[in-house]
Amino acid sequence: MKVLHINTHDTQGGAARAAYRLHQALVEQKIDSQMLVQTRMSDDNTVIGSKGKIEKGLNLFRPFLDSLPVKKYKNRTQTLFSPAWLPFSQVPKKIAEIDPDIVHLHWICGGMMSVGDIARIKKPIVWTLHDMWAFTGGEHIDEGQQHYLNNCGDSWVLKSNQENDLSRKGWLKKQKIYAQLKNLTIVAPSQWLHQCAEGSSLMKNMNHVTIPNLLNTQKYAPFSKAEARKLLNLPIDKKIIAFGAMNATGDPNKGFTHLYSAMQAINIGDTELVVFGSNEPIDAPDFKQPVHYLGHLHDDISLRLLYGAADVMIVPSLQENLSNAIMESLACGTPVVAFDIGGNSDMIDHKINGYLAVPFNPIDLANGIEWVLNTPSYQQLCDNARDKVLTKFDSKVVAQQYIALYKEILAQ
């Protein structure tokens, strides 16, 4: 069995990390797995990137060029919108040359492929959704509009106030292309995204399954709290509250403002906040607790140390599919407090391995932080956190679910 994963990046971003982890897990299970990317950051020889200076140079400009139609919407929000219109992609040609049995799509925006390229793939396709883009007109997060239930248009993200906007045009293009696809299976990592995709106008008639993201639980495992804090130069005798994500302070969806309000509301002394994924912003808010900005942590070892150093991890995102940060923290034995939205309840069992706060109530977020830090059964919370990931999300467990799906598709 030969599987080819398609993703814009191999290690940069949450979707890339999830896709690459699956690829690695399949290789460990002796599956002939490769990964085709537009931008290769790793030195893994099973990852196929751009070849030649000209192709690499063009690929640097493709994300900018693909975003040009969005720029006319001057009042748009900061939420990512991908038209995926850019022609002259070499992806279908490369797929044909590699000749896999299964083509496994992941996050394919940023100029990597046009929507039309999907119809040029002549192999069975598995498509793991990492956000809403596949069933909207171009929004990666719909900001609660739910117009994917109908035919999109009048996009809240674009703030177009027009039915026939770029979102409607993107929806119409996908409708036309999807009608041509005969062997496509949609995978949602969370129950929430499964329900969204299955109920969408574009994907309601497709084959849907739910398989979670996975994690190598040997790489992400409990670590001595005292040693982790020494290595990260964090205080030994304080309660450490961690918060982090890619562009943690700049992406509104990550909930930094809700974190600030919650931290102002908590009434526990001797607490300090650690922020990773961003450097200290120029207009950094004045937290009442000391704050350590650790910047970007790029490798598994640094992230394991960070989770090991923390007493609790906060994920106040406004929308999440199946958060890597939550899964990583739980695997390291650190309880998580998050809003009860998206796929968070797939991982967090309320008051068993963390706390699910009322969306989007920063006071209840503060209640969750206080409950975790004050509970007499804190060590049991930590043990439960680790056990949840070992049982449901370990790389060997989830890889076998994908292998079974691949075999079922090929048998048909």
Please provide a written account of the structure.
With about 400 residues, this protein is α/β, with parallel strands linked by helices. It has helices at about 15-30, 55-65, 90-100, 115-120, 165-180, 190-200, 225-230, 255-265, 300-310, 325-330, 345, 360-375, 380-390, 395-410; strands spanning about 1-10, 30-40, 45-50, 100-105, 125-130, 185-190, 205-210, 240-245, 270-275, 290-295, 310-315, 335-340, 355. It is built from 14 helices and 13 strands. The chain has a seven-stranded parallel β-sheet with strand order 3-2-1-4-5-6-7, sandwiched between helices. A six-stranded parallel β-sheet has the order 10-9-8-11-12-13, sandwiched between helices. β12, α11 (about 345) and β13 form a beta-alpha-beta unit. The longest helix is centred in the last third of the chain and has 17 residues, at about 395-410. About 45% of the residues are buried. The model has no long low-confidence stretch (mean pLDDT about 95).
